[in-house]
Structures are given as C-alpha cells and as structure tokens.
Amino acid sequence: MLIDRKALDNIRSLQSQGDADILSRIINLFLEETQNQLENLQQAIRDKNADTVYSIAHSLKSSSANPGCYEIISLAQRSGGKRKEKRIDGYAQFVSTDRKRI
C-alpha cells in the first residue's frame, strides 16, 4: 500500500512532547478500523445490500484520506458501481482481489 509521506508528516506535526506516539496510534487505529470496514463490506456484498455497501465504501474512502492512503481511495473509486442502479459487483472485486494490496 502506498502512503503519502506528506500526510504522515502532517500527523507527526501534531505530536506533543511527552505524549504517546500519535502517528503510531493513528496508524494502528486506521488499520483496525479498515479491517472492520472491509469485513462489514464483504458481508454487505454477500447480503446484496447496496445501501450498506455504498455507505461503508464512502466511509472507507474518507478515513483513508487522513493517513494519506490514497491508493485505497483510488481502488474503491474504480470499483464503485452505479448507486442509482444498486450495482455492487465492482466492490466484490475490490474486497476479493484488491484487498490484498491494502
């Protein structure tokens, strides 16, 4: 996974002296939450619940911007189906194949 170093530097700049490492905390939280989101996305795809798929995908794209994980955003955007048509087949590809890149 490619990460934007500038985004990481911005997070590091928020570090207060003597506090726990903020970058490690944010990265660990991001990885934990992303894993949960991907599992929920996979379940929503199995359930063919398009509204939940789109909601989770949107949240995943938003949360990926904070630590500079623009590759996830790009993969999710390319995978996106047509919301009005409730098409989620592209997200199934994202979860099954592209997930390995995350």
TrEMBL record:
Provide the HPt domain boundaries: 19-102
Ordered alphabetically, the record's keywords are: Phosphoprotein
An MF annotation (GO) of this entry: protein kinase activity
Which GO BP terms apply? phosphorelay signal transduction system
Alphabetized SUPFAM superfamilies for the sequence: Histidine-containing phosphotransfer domain, HPT domain (SSF47226)
Residues with the modification Phosphohistidine, per the entry, are 58
Record PROSITE patterns: HPT (PS50894)
Full protein name: Hpt domain-containing protein
Organism expressing this protein natively: Desulfobacter hydrogenophilus
